[in-house]
């Protein structure tokens, strides 16, 4: 569900960037972990910071104003740098010149061995491939374990030593002035990059990182029913960590190619069928070349009206991890002939003479047809 970012900051929907900034600063003064160690305050500070990040980003704010939540899609799948809370660092940087992790106090150096990052790949699938599932052979470029040092990072027998810059703490501290007063901030040590130790004689293949980049082929099983934007997770197929740490996950994001006939809406498929006026009046059948069931007959009953739909139940896309399926919805476009030759016009006049009661008329605003039409008109005007 979309969060109320304006409400979180206590500003109106028309608030200017200046007003948003002011509201954020005011709340941050109360809630920043350096000022208020309360657990609840920290939660709120995260919320407030996210709201600030969203509302000062024109693109994200546009999504909010359209009723969406930019942080939900960004966070889906999770774990990518720059997505979700990962992007929060920038806000802290802008206001506090770096963050100290929120908890305060000394942290242990994070060590040389670290878990690896997740990776993201995109793959294009046709609608048919989304419908039946497919195994995609993809080329992945990730960090893998250095085979020369087996992740140790050292050349020969030398051992890592304590970092001189940070004395093994993995971070260095600076005191900065900000609008909160003096704030002590900690940054990862620039010499050992947070590890707390350095390698005097690093591996000549990996330079001490314990890993090297490599391309490889993988077979990614894509289940039936996926849709564009979904991510399939392949556990431990991402980047291996520094020092030979456990590998992150690999996510394969689906990009769905448009289909010639069908437009997808969730698990339903929609298509448009042109029906000549006479066929609509008398009834007919049409064969649709469906994606999963081959050519399938759809009957168009006599007396079909313009704009009506005909539904083939359970002939749409399969639902993910389920045996049920969506529907195939055919929208019937009734076509009135634009040119008649003399004989055809005569036949229609004869037909007309047999239907004496029918005539062209202006409908009452209260008629069933109009009430629907006007409701749609009103909705389209008030929606802006
Ligand atoms: Zn190595
Ligand atoms: Zn260091």
Describe this structure in words.
Helices cover 26% and strands 26% of the residues. With 384 residues, the protein is an alpha+beta fold. Helix 2 (17-31) runs antiparallel to helix 3 (39-55). Among the domains are: 1-70, DnaJ domain (Helix Hairpins, Orthogonal Bundle); 111-152 and 209-258, Urease metallochaperone UreE, N-terminal domain (HSP40/DNAj peptide-binding domain); 262-355, Urease metallochaperone UreE, N-terminal domain (HSP40/DNAj peptide-binding domain, Sandwich). The protein has helices spanning 5-9, 17-31, 39-55, 58-65, 70-75, 88-96, 127-132, 277-282, 342-353, 368-382; strands spanning 119-125, 134-145, 161-162, 171-178, 181-188, 197-198, 211-222, 231-234, 250-256, 263-265, 268-276, 284-290, 294-300, 309-312, 328-335. The protein is elongated, with a radius of gyration of 32 Å. The strands form 6 sheets. A 4-stranded mixed sheet has the order 10-11-15-14. Bound molecules: zinc ion (ZN) (2 copies). One zinc ion is lined by residues 163, 165-166, 189, 191-192. Its main location: cytoplasm. Its cofactor is Zn(2+). Residues 133-215 form the CR-type domain.
